[in-house]
Amino acid sequence: MRDYGRSARHHPAPVQALHNRASLRLAQGKPHEALKDLKKAIQLCPNELNLTEAHSRVTRMIGDYGQAVTDLKRIEKKVKNNRHLADRRAAEQARRQWE
């Protein structure tokens, strides 16, 4: 699968369509179908935290609390990795500046 990046503004049209369709299905009272759409969207954009958070929210609505906790832990890990990478980039830039 292709990774389309992290920013919600730069989602390709298929991912936005899947996310919108999942929201519509939730409004219609079809959370299981919404989960399928969110899983497809996460496969296209695995680094997008908003999609994983939406998936966690829907699984809590259904009552699958174990999966919801797993999703939240995955989000926490990604945020921690992003902070680590940002700190490394800042240190590298500071080192270059002083050379």
UniProtKB/TrEMBL annotation:
Classification via SUPFAM superfamilies: TPR-like
Organism of origin: Heterosigma akashiwo
Signal peptide: none
InterPro entries in UniProt: TPR-like_helical_dom_sf, TPR_rpt
Keywords: TPR repeat
The keyword Chaperone is annotated on this UniProt entry: no
Lineage: Eukaryota, Sar, Stramenopiles, Ochrophyta, Raphidophyceae
Protein name: Tetratricopeptide repeat protein
Intervals holding TPR repeats: 15-48
